[in-house]
Predict the 3D structure of the following.
Amino acid sequence: MDQALSLSGPRTLLEHLIQCSDLSIEEQCEAFARCARKLGERARLSPRQLGRWMAGEVPNARPTARRVAKVLWGHDFAVLVEPPGSLPAATVTRTQTGLATQPPTGSVTLLQPSGYRGPAGEMEVAMAAAESARFAQFAEQSNVGPHTIEQFRDDIERIVANYGNRPIYPAFVEVRELRNRAFELLEGRQPPGQTSDLYLITGILCAILGEASHDLGHVAAAKTQLRTAFLCGELAGNNWLRAWVRGQQSGMAYWNNQPRTAAELATDSWQYIPETGTARVHAATQEARAHAQLRDQHGVDRALARAQQAREQVHGDDYPGGFFTFSPARQNSLTASARLLLGGDANRNEAEALASQAVDLYKAEPPERQQLGLLCLAQLRLTAAQLGADNLEGAAANIGDTLTIIAQRPSETVSRLLTQITNALQRPHYQNTTLALDLRDQIHTATTPALPPQQEP
């Protein structure tokens, strides 16, 4: 095939480049095939077709072939199949080993750097540039539009703002759908900054699902959701989420009668310094309640001191707000729970004062911002403190509105607190008290699901 080279000078720029190279026609075709594979192009070139290109007999070619030719020989196809213009014609001489090219007399010979083989080297450089360009195009691809992250944030803020005021299961379903969308996006491609944002969003959604799963009475599922939420915090590099989830896990361990685990989880959260917000206040107060369950007065006092210190060091708001904000009302309510667990008149009196303050703070919020679920917990803790002081009338007056909310929005945590109150109403000195019997009936009615109507025979 080397006989295809013109003996009177190159007819096209392509023929000139091939004459100046050390590759045979067959080797040029093999180089074309390798270049096509690297570029992901479905293009082939036979020695016969290359000969026609070199002779200028083919003014055009398939787009795939043109793209490969441009990368391989460094020029547009239309330029390659045109005469070489002012390029000096190569003088072709025959040697014992075949054809050899020599520059014409008087022409300028370009000295190439060591290891560089003229057009063959240009081919490698061009191919490397094309590969980098293809990678840049791939890296720029994103399945996250400019408004996707913003929409996720808006949805989350709306959900957590209303979580305590709506039935739990519909909220669970909505959050699960949002989380699944976030999972799907994370399986695609996006810039690293958007990936980090998506992990934070997914972690928050899993934390909400953990809270909802626990409220619905599914403890194992709740634990799984929180483990995933913590992992997302790790992948996002977000200390606020990691610290908050540790506090959630501590609370869940407490309700599972695992006080030592609860204390350890809350303590572990302190290695994560939150970027903003109240996550440390939350974790320290959870730790205090875990120590109270262990009847460790000193542990409670130490944890509450840390909670107060953390409160004084809070800067910035919690994102996304709602129940992720550990407000003073919530802190008072949870501290009241710890004091009740410790027992004794002094702790009970302090618990009553704290729970009463929490109820007042919750009720002072505008209706659209009230967290009715948290208000119920504070009212039930106030009721428990009042019953501990044998203030049956105060307990009866406090629990009435609470039972109306509970009937509309039952949860596992509220059910456990109601069980404790029912047990308190069964103490011997309340056995024959009409008001105590009436309260027990009200609690039973509020917590017993209505039976479906019976069909007539």
